[in-house]
């Protein structure tokens, strides 16, 4: 046992004499969602230079390390992929814009002239965060959307409208669980059903919404059928 202790003691002593140290340098900052804190925090992006030390003093470079993201609150370090997750504020804005775009797309499929469809769309958009949304505003935006995309009310989802949907939904989809993605599709379905059964144009728009949210076609069919069976 004594020889073993002697070896352990020598190893511990050597570790106190020789070691490595990382010197961090700030390379940027911003706001991010900190997984450690569970909320939005400020961060610094750090790059590191590792050095071999003797008695705690750096003597030889041992290469670079990082970059890492350091939370200004908890001081924990994370990989830079943590910056791919939107902040709570940004996520709320993305979700709000997604619901707004889906509502406009469904109305453009034929519901803009229906008061019940407009009322349903206004409720969905207000719940998503646009508190001052009105039926008149949505109707005017549908007209502007049709003029911009060259689309005629009641036509299938054309390239211009599909682009609008993908621009709003593609960045959001990876950050939503399945139930969240289906919830957005379901809101669109309820707007479409507010003035009667789905039209072919409305089904086409909702299929595009489902595709942009990475919902498979079978699940899109299931969600639309479930919405149709549920009394409004």
From TrEMBL:
InterPro entries according to UniProt: DjlA_N, TerB-like
UniProt xrefs under SUPFAM superfamilies: TerB-like (SSF158682)
Secretion signal span: none
Protein name, per record: Co-chaperone DjlA N-terminal domain-containing protein
Pfam families the UniProt entry points to: TerB (PF05099)
Co-chaperone DjlA N-terminal domain location: 121-222
């Amino acid at each position: 046992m004594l020889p073993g202790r002697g070896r352990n003691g020598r190893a511990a002593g050597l570790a106190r004499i020789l070691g490595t140290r990382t010197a961090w340098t700030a390379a940027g900052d911003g706001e991010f969602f900190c997984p450690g804190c569970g909320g939005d925090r400020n961060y610094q992006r750090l790059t590191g230079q590792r050095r071999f030390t003797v008695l705690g003093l750096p003597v030889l470079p041992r290469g670079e390390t990082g970059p890492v993201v350091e939370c200004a609150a908890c001081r924990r370090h994370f990989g830079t992929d943590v910056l791919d997750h939107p902040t709570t504020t940004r996520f709320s804005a993305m979700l709000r814009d997604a619901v707004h775009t889906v509502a406009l797309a469904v109305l453009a499929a034929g519901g803009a002239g229906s008061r019940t469809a407009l009322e349903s769309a206004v409720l969905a958009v207000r719940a998503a965060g646009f508190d001052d949304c009105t039926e008149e505003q949505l109707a005017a935006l549908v007209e502007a959307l049709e003029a911009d995309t060259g689309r005629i009310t009641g036509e299938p989802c054309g390239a211009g409208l599909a682009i609008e949907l993908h621009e709003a939904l593609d960045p959001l989809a990876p950050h939503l669980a399945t139930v969240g993605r289906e919830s957005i599709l379901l809101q669109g379905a309820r707007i479409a059903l507010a003035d009667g059964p789905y039209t072919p144009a409305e089904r086409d728009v909702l299929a595009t919404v489902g595709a942009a949210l990475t919902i498979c076609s079978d699940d899109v069919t299931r969600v639309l059928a479930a919405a149709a069976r549920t009394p409004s």
